[in-house]
Design the sequence.
């Protein structure tokens, strides 16, 4: 059995660790709040732009967009993979890297051998460098501070390479932020553009109202959501009798880059919020585990202390009887 001094030292050590994890949890909670506000401010623009563009393209048969051509044979694939620059966020980075490897193996099995990875985040960049894969650039700062202009530059580079035939398909790999306690690993096609209007709004199922991640609170929210009937908005195609000014190519040339830029930026905001939520959950779990360990150590300390006192009393009583 450990001595009282050793137990007391370990209690102090666990207490110090608990203070760190508790502070990191509060920092992650604050950053998550800012990330949620950023998503909330972007949502109205995202919803309307996606609806207008897709309904416009679907209802305009004469519209010809090179980005929507599905018949091109895939020889080279680009993956935009989002991770974090730091650790201590549970399985956030491991899950992204695992899905990236699965996608690459899937394409290799179908005959594709050329890949280029756009690593947004240090963890993906390290994996790309370690495996010797082709990298599309350095975007470490973007993972910490989401920037719409930088995302637009990435989208422009990808579309230019797609138009030149250097890339045949582009996919995004990231965590879709659904709520503080739920982040969904997502694989989304970037190029060619998916014009189906049935999926409009499917990615806008985020709960931005709460940062609660405890098990009891999540169970309560799930039951509340199950009992509440949410009427789904039916996407009604816009009037197909468009008056296009100045002309169709000019309008498409303006709308399509906006949608592509928005897809890159939205995925970045989702990944950023998911990272902070995952870190908040991980630090909350670590803090709870530290509380459990401290309780066990205090119980062990008290038992050892009581045993030592009892032993001393027995020695005193035994000595008195002998005398």
Sequence:
């Amino acid at each position: 059995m450990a001595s009282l001094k050793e137990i007391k030292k370990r209690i102090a050590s666990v207490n110090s660790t608990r203070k760190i994890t508790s502070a990191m949890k509060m920092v992650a909670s604050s950053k998550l709040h800012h990330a949620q506000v950023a998503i909330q401010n972007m949502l109205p623009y995202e919803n309307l732009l996606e609806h207008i563009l897709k309904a416009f393209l679907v209802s305009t048969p004469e519209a010809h967009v090179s980005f929507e051509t599905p018949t091109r044979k895939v020889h080279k694939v680009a993956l935009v993979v989002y991770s974090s620059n730091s650790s201590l966020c549970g399985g956030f980075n491991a899950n992204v890297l695992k899905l990236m490897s699965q996608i690459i193996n899937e394409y290799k099995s179908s005959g594709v051998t050329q890949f280029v990875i756009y690593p947004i985040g240090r963890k993906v960049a390290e994996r790309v460098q370690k495996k010797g894969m082709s990298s599309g650039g350095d975007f470490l700062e973007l993972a910490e501070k989401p920037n719409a202009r930088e995302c637009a530059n990435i989208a422009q580079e990808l579309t230019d390479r797609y138009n030149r035939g250097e890339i045949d398909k582009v996919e995004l790999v990231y965590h879709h932020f659904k709520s503080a306690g739920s982040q969904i690993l997502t694989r989304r096609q970037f190029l060619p553009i998916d014009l189906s209007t049935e999926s409009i709004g499917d990615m806008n199922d985020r709960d931005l109202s709460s940062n609660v991640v405890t098990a009891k609170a999540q169970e309560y929210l799930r039951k509340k959501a199950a009992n509440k009937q949410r009427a789904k908005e039916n996407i009604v195609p816009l009037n197909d009798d468009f008056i296009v000014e100045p002309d169709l190519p000019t309008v498409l040339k303006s709308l399509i880059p906006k949608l592509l830029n928005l897809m890159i930026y939205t995925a970045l905001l989702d990944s950023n919020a998911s990272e902070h939520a995952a870190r908040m959950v991980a630090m909350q779990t670590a803090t709870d585990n530290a509380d459990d360990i401290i309780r066990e150590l205090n119980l062990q300390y008290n038992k050892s202390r009581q045993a030592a006192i009892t032993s001393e009393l027995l020695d005193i009583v035994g000595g008195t009887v002998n005398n």
About this structure: The mean pLDDT is 82. Residues 17-226+241-285 form a domain with the Pyruvate Kinase; Chain: A, domain 1 fold (CATH 3.40.1380.10). Residues 226 and 292 are 33 Å apart (CA to CA).
